[in-house]
Specification:
Blueprint lengths: L21 E6 L6 E18 L5 E10 L4 E10 L2 E5 L2 E6 L1 E9 L1 E2 L2 E13 L5 E13 L2 E9 L2 E5 L10 E4 L8 E6 L6 E11 L5 E12 L2 E16 L4 E11 L16 E5 L11 E11 L5 E7 L10 E3 L5 E2 L2 E4 L5 E6 L5 E11 L9 E11 L11 E5 L11 E11 L5 E7 L10 E3 L5 E8 L5 E6 L5 E11 L10 E11 L15 E6 L13 E9 L5 E7 L10 E3 L4 E9 L5 E6 L4 E10 L1
Parallel strand pairs: 1-24
Antiparallel strand pairs: 1-20, 2-3, 2-8, 2-17, 4-7, 5-6, 6-9, 7-9, 9-10, 10-11, 10-12, 12-13, 14-15, 15-16, 16-17, 18-26, 19-25, 20-23, 20-26, 21-22, 21-25, 27-34, 28-33, 29-32, 29-34, 30-31, 30-33, 35-42, 36-41, 37-40, 37-42, 38-39, 38-41
Length: about 625
């Protein structure tokens, strides 16, 4: 269905062809970034236990402290005397005292610190874990999260020995400063129940905050099931939304020739950090996000890339999926990490990788320019009804005043650009009208391919963009999805906040409330706000990576605001048996949801990357 083109299949056979990369938005910032949200909390103990398959019973979390909106310069503290937790005849926990604290500030250089201390611990009543004291603590500032745990005189019972003989139990000492997520398996005296005790349990949350538990006992049965968390602290900050500044595209990584300092393919299960700030026109400071195109080429195996903040745990998400010998781009959004870098992970085989930077977001929402207005997608060019674009030819496309973009006040737009009826291997470059064509490409294809990619395009002379075709004949289709303001437009909405990528929909396992493949010709509403770090309110649009897998036949996805008519556009095209991604920038509709339509049956995965206020 050529009226709904929005996915690329790149299979380049000629080495001279320019490789198109896929647009990626990556965020981060310097140490003095403006923080608009400080997240801090701590508690002493929380038990959530069920017996013999019955309903779970809870106690706590207590004592507990939480930062108020705007933070607190002074520590917020709470304490409790002797704590004793018992459900029926089962004694689960006792301690002599508990003390918790949190403090944090917003604004320039905002930061958070939290801690929790519990003294004289005995968990599960029958001495499965005992310690003189346990302490968890954490700190957070923009670009940095850290946690630590200290345990004094800690021991775990790993064997009860002969139940009829006292004193023959086996105890294992717990390190005073256990490495993150240290697990010791044990047994409860007298009843034979098994458990895992996780010390210094560290979890990086979708909103970028870190949760540190000094101890987490996982009761595994056969009689008792559930969890006991001891001395937990949480720290996190989120910077204010950023404003977009477009750049002339510039290549900052190409592992084929050593651009960016890496001159070999990225190997199997390999991870490398790539410098983003200070390169390709991106400032060294004052940056909260960058937009760049990313491509894999010449992969030797089937796998995926994950691009995530340097210095943080790799999330359970993927940005590009590929098969051997493919060239695959995808529009990706990922948060910048330590030192203004991103971490690039390759899951299988080896592959070359290319980054082309296209623009950046500031670390402050102050000012009118660079704010995003999301639109219901609208088609503004389709040469199938006019004349195909020939080899070495270009056309100037009027964008301002079309498809919901205002006639004045827009400096850049989000487009989906597609080609079809292609006659030769070639590429397209989209750039501002009136400037010299850059050494970059937005789409690559072989003869007969139908290819699309999303493009953040700077508007040139007269509010136009120029589209250049390198070879052969091709029909070109362009859908506009939103626009960025210039300095003449007043407003406070449309600033972008990047998140640590988080999976909010996976129909293979029911994540997101949809279980099983979505039948062809049907649609479902997917909750976006309040999930994966996206706030429950105050959100105009989101950036997410949509992937189809296990496709039953040729078809397409259309993702649009819930409550609005489905547009004549598509976000992803696929064939039978495909696994294909495409990044989507979509306005949020009624109830904070988007509507997902599939033309043919398929599983669908959403990884959210950020949101616009």
């Amino acid at each position: 269905m050529l009226s709904r083109i929005r996915v690329r299949i790149l299979r380049l056979s000629l080495p001279v062809v320019l490789i198109a990369a896929t647009l990626v938005v990556v965020t981060g910032g310097p140490a003095q970034a403006v923080v608009n949200d400080a997240k801090g909390s701590a508690f002493g103990v929380f038990a959530n236990i069920g017996f013999f398959g019955g309903p779970a019973m809870t106690d706590g979390p207590a004592p507990q402290v939480t930062l108020p909106p705007g933070g607190s310069v002074n520590p917020i503290t709470a304490s409790a005397p002797t704590r004793f937790i018992q459900f029926g005849p089962a004694i689960l926990f006792s301690s002599s005292s508990q003390n918790v604290s949190t403090q944090g500030t917003t604004g320039a250089g905002g930061s958070v610190s939290s801690s929790a201390t519990v003294l004289n611990i005995n968990t599960s009543g029958t001495e499965t874990f005992r310690a003189t004291s346990v302490l968890s603590s954490c700190t957070a500032s923009e670009g940095s999260r850290a946690g630590s745990v200290t345990i004094t005189n800690g021991e775990v019972r790993t064997s009860e020995g002969n139940p009829d003989v006292d004193g023959d139990e086996v105890w294992v000492p717990v390190p005073a400063n256990p490495p993150a997520n240290t697990v010791i398996h044990g047994v409860i005296e007298g009843v034979g129940d098994q458990f895992d005790y996780v010390f210094n349990e560290q979890v990086l949350n979708p909103d970028g905050s870190i949760t540190v538990s000094a101890g987490h006992q996982k009761l595994l049965g056969p009689s008792a099931f559930g969890d006991i968390w001891v001395a937990q602290s949480v720290c996190g900050v989120n910077p204010g939304g950023g404003r977009y500044t477009p750049l002339t595209p510039a290549r900052i990584l190409d592992t084929r020739d050593g651009t960016g300092g890496i001159a070999t393919p990225i190997g199997n299960q390999a991870t490398v950090d790539v410098q983003i700030t200070g390169r390709g026109g991106v400032p060294a400071a004052g940056v909260s996000a960058v937009a760049m195109n990313v491509t894999v080429t010449q992969p030797t195996g089937a796998g995926y890339l994950t691009i995530s903040p340097a210095g943080m745990p790799r999330p359970f998400t993927a940005n590009l999926n590929f098969s051997p010998n493919q060239t695959v781009p995808n529009l990706v959004v990922v948060k910048l990490g330590a030192g203004g870098k991103v971490r690039l992970f390759n899951s299988a085989g080896s592959t070359h990788v290319i980054f082309d930077v296209a623009g950046y977001y500031t670390d402050s929402g102050t000012g009118p320019d660079g704010r995003y207005t999301a639109l219901v997608p609208a088609r503004i060019l389709d040469t199938r009804s006019t004349v195909r674009l020939g080899a070495g030819a270009s056309l100037d496309l009027q964008v301002s005043g079309q498809g919901g973009v205002p006639a004045t006040g827009a400096k850049a737009v989000t487009l989906n650009v597609a080609v079809t009826n292609t006659t030769a291997t070639s590429y397209l470059t989209v750039y501002p009208t009136g400037v010299v064509r850059p050494l970059a490409a937005n789409l690559n294809w072989n003869a007969g391919d139908t290819v699309s990619n999303r493009v953040k395009a700077t508007l040139g002379t007269g509010g136009k963009v120029t589209i250049y075709n390198n070879g052969g004949q091709a029909d070109v289709i362009v859908d506009v999805g939103g626009w960025y303001s210039n300095a003449t437009v007043a407003g406070i909405s449309g600033a972008y906040t990047s998140l640590l990528p988080a999976r909010i929909l996976d129909t293979r396992d029911g994540n997101g409330g949809v279980v099983g493949p979505i039948a062809g010709g049907t649609s479902v509403d997917v909750q976006i706000t309040g999930r994966g770090g996206v706030p429950p309110t105050g959100v105009s649009a989101v950036i997410l990576n949509a992937t189809v897998t296990g496709t039953a036949g040729p078809g397409y996805l259309t993702i649009s605001p819930t409550g609005s008519p489905m547009p004549l556009a598509a976000d992803l095209n696929y064939s039978a048996g495909d696994t294909r991604p495409n990044l989507v920038v979509v306005r949020v509709g009624a109830g904070g949801k988007v509507n997902l339509f599939t033309a043919a049956g398929t599983h669908v995965v959403f990884d959210v990357a950020g949101y616009f206020n």
